[in-house]
């Protein structure tokens, strides 16, 4: 469990407001999506049910439907305006479903999903135990979970610049790759493999980066964020501190991207919860003989 929390309502509002502008700013998201889709080669079966969790405007859902035309592909997102926007990426020849739901409570039965795909969404779910317990619940035994998320070095320059201005949390905090891997194992997901890559994007000004974050819906949604207006002097100090990082005419922004995959656990595999372990079985596997015991 992390020591910080996101305001889920604010996350929903941020992404809802950004639905119309998202695809103008999603170059990194598309690059990472391509990597994730290419790695689906490790799944050799023909899936029946594919979930795209945190689907946004549906680019990933469309790519999944193109790859698996016979599968039922379902785009899931917390923000309804994003899914409305996703309609433009769903062709009449290769349509996909669209459902408003939270990654913590996926609206599908136990052990029903062949492939669970999520591109740069899980960073907004700080309760990793709850998140991966839900992934393990919905995956078929041997089903594939593949996802990307942001690591703690993401936006480190912006975070450092704000630290020069005041002591408040202005930039979202993200979890370490090792914490992610431990949480996957704790919830019974099998054979997790994780990679970390760093991308350095450059911008003409710090304001250009802030405009991009707003256009993506990636505004600060930390529950402990300052709720009032940021003073002009604080804002100027942050901009000045960021400007000091300028090199060769541009300012840098680091994005640490963690990509991972794992496999759905077999029925009955235990997972850690609280101080003990829990195992679940399909009810049809619990048939037993019945004997009358004499008194």
Can you characterise this structure?
The chain is globular, with a radius of gyration of 21 Å. A hairpin with a 2-residue loop joins strand 8 and strand 9. The protein is built from nine helices and nine strands. The longest helix is centred in the N-terminal third of the chain and has 12 residues. Helix 5 packs across helix 7 and helix 6 crosses helix 9. Helix content is 31%, strand content 23%.
Topology at a glance:
Blueprint: H1 8-17, H2 27-38, E1 49-53, H3 59-67, E2 72-77, H4 80-86, E3 97-100, E4 113-119, H5 128-138, E5 139-150, H6 156-165, H7 177-186, E6 190-203, H8 206-216, H9 232-243, E7 251-263, E8 271-273, E9 276-278
Parallel strand pairs: 1-2, 1-4, 2-3, 4-5
Antiparallel strand pairs: 5-7, 6-7, 8-9
Region (Disordered): 265-295
Protein name: Malonyl-[acyl-carrier protein] O-methyltransferase
Function: Converts the free carboxyl group of a malonyl-thioester to its methyl ester by transfer of a methyl group from S-adenosyl-L-methionine (SAM). It allows to synthesize pimeloyl-ACP via the fatty acid synthetic pathway.
Question: Could you give a quick summary of the protein structure above?
Answer:
The protein has 295 residues and is α/β, with parallel strands linked by helices. It has helices at 8-17, 27-38, 59-67, 80-86, 128-138, 156-165, 177-186, 206-216, 232-243, and strands at residues 49-53, 72-77, 97-100, 113-119, 139-150, 190-203, 251-263, 271-273, 276-278. α5 crosses α7 and α6 crosses α9 (232-243).
